[in-house]
Amino acid sequence: MNDSALLTDLYELTMLQAYFDEDMHDTAVFELFVRVLPSRRRFLMLSGIEQVLDYLENLHFTAGELDWLHGTGRFRPAFLDSLRAFRFRGDVHAMREGTVFFGNEPVLRIEAPIGEAQFVESRLINLVNFCSLIATKAARCVLAAPDSLLVDFGLRRAHAGEAGLLAARACYLAGFAGSATVLAGQRFGIPVFGTMAHSYIEAHDLESEAFERFSSSQPDNVTLLIDTYDTEAAAAKVVALAPALKARGVNLASVRLDSGDLAEHARKVRALLDAGGLPDVRIFASGNLDEHRIAVLRAAGAPIDGFGIGTQLTTSADAPALDSAYKLQAYAGRARRKRSEGKESWPGAKQVWRSVDAEGRPQRDLIALADEPAPPGGFPLLQPVMRGGRRLAPPEPLAGLRAHAAAELARLPAPLREPGPAAEAPPYPVEVSDGLRTLARELDARPY
């Protein structure tokens, strides 16, 4: 993403100077995790690791940034001079993007000199928190409509441009067919979808004229928006226009509904299209949709083939935040543990082990110390991805991550697949190892 090093919280810089002043440069272990899942989420899906690695690999201070910091008068010249050579040179373990995870499970582990490991906190939380939030919401939409065309329509309602772009990537990773965000196509190779605007139709004197002109302008894959005035009347105009379009080689792919009772309109439009000899023209719907409304539409038998999902998705409106944390777990070879009431952390560098049944469905997870023996039948979720500040492999193609996410959703136990509140389902079992509990007790017994 080519971020500025100043895209951080002030206290990351003040702590970096404090470590510099005290000559504290021993290795620290930090882990990023979500303390508790939102009440409306039964699982989370990881996204944003690629952006984290890109940030870490390219992190540096420019001359202009250092000049600005000098001008603030907050920092000592010797410290600022040291930042000219500042780079992230640590090691990183992470879960693979597209992996389903749960509360208190570290999804990212950083091992680096304490100043480097501390400084990256804000941006790492920012990236993983947002991308995982949206990937999870998108995954729930995929579960609600697994055989439908799903398209991200959220850029215009996203909280600024970067959010819209990263949301498009997270949605595609989670199983969407593509996005309306053009830069997502150029940047990530995501298929880009688009239809037409109500304003285009209103700018013409006749709706049928707008349909005909737009079809001539975009003849290869036409989707006509038919709810500007009267939805069913517009569908009849599409049927009347279709023979002339076909004669000119225009591919009339679908019609789009964006308002009103979508289920009722879809049934009436489907009947008109079928009676007019257009059974292959699909119906695409949009308009403040989410996984819950989609589930209602499908339960009602609405003949809708695809959905454009925007505001509710790109803002994760029903669960707009994650309780993400990035905490020190060890420093200078000694385990550390935060003991704040309600915000206790498990100490030491850790691994997450997942056990599955004969069909590959997750049965339980175990959070254990990284050097504890593997539990019988378990496999580790955290894998080394960076050493000495450099990736261990090229970025994984998005298609591979997308396939992994699809496999994760396909293997989800049935209670986790439902969109209802977490309290209505038995929680997925996440256990803590005996060794980790013993270490926590030992730390709690030490003076502080």
Automatic annotation (TrEMBL):
GO MF annotations in UniProt:
glycosyltransferase activity; nicotinate phosphoribosyltransferase activity
Under Enzyme Commission nomenclature, its number is 6.3.4.21
What UniProt keywords are attached to this protein's entry?
Answer: Glycosyltransferase, Ligase, Phosphoprotein, Pyridine nucleotide biosynthesis, Transferase
Region described as Disordered: spans on this chain: 338-357
Does the record's keyword annotation contain Glycosyltransferase? yes
- Domain Nicotinate phosphoribosyltransferase N-terminal, by residue range, is 6-129
Q: Give the pathway annotation.
A: Cofactor biosynthesis; NAD(+) biosynthesis; nicotinate D-ribonucleotide from nicotinate: step 1/1
Give the highest taxon in the source lineage: Bacteria
Q: Name one Pfam family in it.
A: NAPRTase
Keyword hit for Repeat: no
Q: Which residues form the Nicotinate/nicotinamide phosphoribosyltransferase domain?
A: 150-330
The protein's matches in PANTHER family, at most eight in alphabetical order, are given as: NICOTINATE PHOSPHORIBOSYLTRANSFERASE (PTHR11098:SF1)
Q: Which family does the UniProt entry place this protein in?
A: Belongs to the NAPRTase family.
Task: Say what the protein does.
Answer: Catalyzes the first step in the biosynthesis of NAD from nicotinic acid, the ATP-dependent synthesis of beta-nicotinate D-ribonucleotide from nicotinate and 5-phospho-D-ribose 1-phosphate.
The protein's name: Nicotinate phosphoribosyltransferase
Which species? Thauera sinica
